[in-house]
Amino acid sequence: MALNFPEDFLWGGAVAANQCEGAYLADGKGLSIQDVTPKGGLGPVTPEPTEDNMKLVGIDFYNRYKEDVKLFAEMGFKVFRTSIAWSRIFPNGDDTTPNEKGLEFYDNLFDECLKYGIEPLVTISHYETPLNLAKKYDGWRDRRLIGFYETYVRTIFERYKDKVKYWLTFNEINSIVHAPFMSGGIYTEKDKLTKSDLYQAIHHELVASALATKIGHEMMPNAKIGCMILGMPVYPLTPNPDDVIKMLERDRENLLFSDVHVRGKYPAYAKRLFKEQNIEIKMEPGDEEILSNTVDFISFSYYMSICESADPTKVAGKGNLMGGVPNPYLKASEWGWQIDPKGLRYILNTLYDRYEKPLFIVENGLGAVDQLVEDETGNKTVIDDYRIQYLNDHLVQVAEAIEDGVEIMGYTTWGCIDLVSASTAELKKRYGFIYVDRNDDGTGTLERYKKKSFHWYKEVIKTNGKSLKN
């Protein structure tokens, strides 16, 4: 099959502010929830930042962004996905006046991207709720966060409306079900949260997201506002009808979020879900009207698929944030994430069949332990053929989905430059085309080196996918 990508396909890469910027207290920035999770978003929370938290320095993107954006431009990026650190703009989250130095940093970053013809794709809230909002209000459990988020959104829309065309409201919004502190800033321990507490917080986020979409359309008529979900195809472990029903239920747990974003209301199946799990949501007057403000496109991350079984003796797969049962037909990465390129084609078709809205793959990549070596010319590099193979195989399936008739806006690889892992706060779990000389013990020069995959991806973009091996 010929690999045909649209001429205006947005090729690029993705990062998150909290995983790359560092400078965690620079120029008036406040603390975020990331500053107190030294072992990653799934690990323990400390009362205050500790020196062993790799994110406090990250890869020093805050000070080196010009060097890094230049490297992205050399690869030919059409788009660069990043996030705004909420606590750089409103240090406490509930401030009434924004921090000008924080606003200036993103002005400079977006200008640098635009200088090279790279469109910024900006996530408004990417796992970095201001710590004060978590401690003082218990994060998104408190309805007042909708107002704080609205103030933040209006501020950045007004400031960057002439620089940013593509916006995402929340990163992997459905992950709050499994990671309530990292995803929702909920300070109450996960095992002490009731289902009603959790889904009330989810409701607040969904209302805030729809409100941001409404405000964005009013303030920036030419902008595109999207939702962002953790994309996770679910397969039945066997053809046993009980497994198929279990798959359906698990799939709906994720699709609930995109259903509300795209259809503008809670789906019919939510009534049964809420009834059977004794979930009560307090909906204020006007919430339903706000939810009717639907997104322009759906973006998602894709790293793996999972299986589900009605058999309670099956064990959840190691490393899978969203649980599930290991698929006996798939291999796994060093972190236990099962590798399933065809699952990307499957979820692209599933989402497009369901919604008929443009899709954007905004995260996909392979975390691996890379070895820095010298090439034949004496330059330092990484021979990451495993990453090239992974990305090639997934992009071939994107081309298959396009052939299927799916409308896909673009593709941004996760961690286009090495950064600190969200789930484990490691730097040895590398994703990038660019190696950053920093280690988990904090040593390293922070120098940047082009990996073999850097040159491979440059050719993929240059040929608009024609160089991929089918």
TrEMBL record:
| Gene Ontology biological process terms from the UniProt entry | carbohydrate catabolic process
Q: Which UniProt keywords apply?
A: Glycosidase, Hydrolase
Keyword Glycoprotein among UniProt keywords: no
Is Hydrolase set as a keyword in this record? yes
InterPro entries reported for this sequence: GH, GH_1_N_CS, Glyco_hydro_1, Glyco_hydro_1_AS
- Catalytic residues at 363
Q: Which GO terms describe its molecular function?
A: beta-glucosidase activity
Question: Where does the sequence pass through the membrane?
Answer: none
Instruction: Give the protein's recorded name.
Output: Glycoside hydrolase family 1 protein
Any one Gene Ontology cellular component term annotated for this protein? cytosol
Q: Which PANTHER family match?
A: 6-PHOSPHO-BETA-GLUCOSIDASE ASCB-RELATED, GLYCOSYL HYDROLASE
Q: Which residues form a coiled coil?
A: none
Q: Which family does it belong to?
A: Belongs to the glycosyl hydrolase 1 family.
